[in-house]
Amino acid sequence: MRIARYARNGEVSFGVVEGPGADPSDLVVAALEGHPFAPFSFTGERFPMTDVRLLAPVLPSKVVCIGKNYADHAAEMGGAAPEAPVVFLKPSTSVIGPADPIQLPRNSERVDHEAELGVVIGRLCREVPREKALDVVLGYTCGNDVTARDHQKADGQWTRGKGHDSFCPIGPWVETDLNPADLRVQCFVDGEVRQDGSTKDLIHDVPAVIEWITAFMTLLPGDVILTGTPAGVGPLVAGNAVTVLVDGIGPLTNPVVSR
Ligand code: MG
Questions:
Q1: How far away, in angstroms, is 197 Cα from ligand 1 center?
Q2: Of 20, 116, 142, 170, which residue is the least packed, with the fewest Cβ within 10 Å?
Q3: Contact between residue 113 and residue 187 where contact means Cβ atoms under 8 Å apart
């Protein structure tokens, strides 16, 4: 099931996306009563996808990210992957939805794309063992851990480099029926492939990451975990369109503009 959040005539709702593939002209959104984190019903209203605007599929209280979780990406950043997961946060204000512009900061010379599998948490949870980790997952989405690489390097910690407004595109919806163990993760810039990996190469897989994070932090419904990016990160410039595609989800495309 594909759960989307959308705006139509000034009203914001959740809905279930119906139809084959990802071409908006083939898709319909069935409106939900309430929100998708509890048993829900349908209002009975159904709209063509072309009549709604998709928004970020959830409003996370926080986006928890794992750094250097693919060996090939750790190598391209100039080192080995650390033994324990590297955890950092992106603020809720960095989250944008499908087709929203990624805004390049005026004072950064280098902004990179990072295509990632996003895990959307379905319920409040703490100290979740890996055997039960997938029980707290609502579903999966595409994420782009956009990074001002010069700010990240200059600061020595990552809050500014990773936390600019618009640096966390997620969407286009949450796919609830997926096994995260072996999903192709791709990034395209203006249609040209830049990253092409698989979650089977995650050093710390989705259950391990949930166990690690919830050992010290409560996760709330709608929180998002970005699981790390495979090799091939590279610069974005104004005028680009960047697309993240994960097996069975997406595409998530965002234009790149100067702020
Ligand atoms: Mg990343």
A1: 13
A2: 20
A3: yes
Domain range for 29 is 2-54
Helix (H, G, I), strand (E, B) or coil at 41: strand
Report the separation in Å between the CA atom of 185 and the middle of ligand 1, taken as the mean of its atom positions: 12
- The model scores a pTM over 0.90: yes
CA of 113 to the centre of ligand 1 (A): 9
pLDDT tens digits along 74-93: 999 998 888 999 999 999 99
Q: How far is the CA of 20 from the centre of ligand 1 (A)?
A: 30
Instruction: Give pLDDT, residue 81.
Output: 86
- 14 with 138, same domain: the answer is no
35 and 156 part of one domain: no
Low pLDDT (below 70) residues in the chain? none
Ligand 1 center from residue 227 Cα (angstroms): 7
Domain count, the chain: 2
If asked whether residues 203 and 122 sit together in one domain, one would say yes
The answer to whether residues 15 and 142 belong to one domain is no
